[in-house]
């Protein structure tokens, strides 16, 4: 634990130092531009033109850095599918340039100064048009092109692989959720969709997973080191093959320990015939943790098609109440997504029943003219 904390502290200090170095480099260039502009006859014009040159150079350098930093997909054997490795283009180009310089010789570098002078002469009018503006504009372009290149390459190198990996993992989860949906596993499908949206940062995770929960849950046969999510998914998948009865699952939930309660909710998710609405409502309204409430909502999701009108109303009131409470289900979390989906399904199911329960008004009988006897209405006492 101490070593992990030290590594985390070292990484945070390194990131802080990197940001400070980048800010110093960028600020030094801007400070030089401001001081140069103050000495010109048209200071604001020189400053504005210089800022445009700075922006254009940074964009060009950043685009080049992005191209060199784009990661490549790993194709070697034994490597995780969809993982990314650093792009080696920069190393290849560096090696190629070294060979070119050694082959052609340093004599060809003499034209570099002429090219820079031409560039400075073209940009000098934007920075005041004086003789001093020629070398300064060329130096400004070089400075911020190199700065933009380094910044673009580092950002791409450090951030883009993780973004691409997260997107690939989220896509795999979405596809797995669709497959489970086609097989009729609505609870497992929604769980995978929630995890995919969490992977993309669209939903917040469950409030907390108690540290002792993993020890309270039964060990996973597939992976002994699996976390609570993996164990719950395994219990859910074996629920229909379990010899437990609905009463035993209800007693398992009533045991009181959080591990037993989560295990009971997982069994209810996997087989709605084992579910007990009172236990599910208790876990929704009085959860031990956000993790437990999340799995209670998943269990309720599997019960939607089995609840009669009165029990559906109880579930609707419990879920809606938790959404309204300040310390209930937080907005934008995985639990709020499930809760809103449960409420929309309940409303859709109640719609046709509600309209069927409303008595229809009898059709109006047309009034006969005065003096003409009216026909008798069927079923009406004479």
Structure description:
- The chain is an all-alpha fold and 382 residues long.
- The protein is 67% helix and 1% strand.
- The protein has 14 helices and 2 strands.
- Strands 1-2 form a two-stranded antiparallel sheet.
- Helix 2 crosses helix 5 (133-182) and helix 10 packs parallel to helix 12 (290-303).
- The longest helix has 50 residues, at 133-182.
- The relative contact order is 0.06.
Distance between the termini: 91 Å
Rg computed from alpha carbons, rounded to a whole number of angstroms:
34 Å
Task: Count the DSSP helices.
Answer: 14
- The share of residues in extended strands comes to under 5%
Give the strand order of the largest sheet, numbering strands 1, 2, ... along the chain. Answer: 1-2
Average per-residue pLDDT, rounded, comes to: 79
Secondary structure: helix percent: 55-70%
Helix-and-strand structural type: mainly alpha
pLDDT below 50 for ≥5 consecutive residues: which ranges?
354-382
Biggest sheet, in brief? 2 strands, antiparallel
Give the tally of β-strands: 2
Order of helices and strands: HHEEHHHHHHHHHHHH
Molecular shape: elongated
Describe what is shown at a glance:
By secondary structure, the protein is an all-alpha fold.
Give short descriptive properties of this protein.
382 residues; 14 helices; mainly alpha; elongated; disordered C terminus; two-stranded antiparallel ribbon
Give the secondary structure arrangement, pairings included:
Blueprint: H1 2-38, H2 43-69, E1 72-73, E2 84-85, H3 89-104, H4 110-123, H5 133-182, H6 186-199, H7 213-216, H8 228-237, H9 246-254, H10 258-270, H11 277-285, H12 290-303, H13 309-324, H14 334-357
Antiparallel strand pairs: 1-2
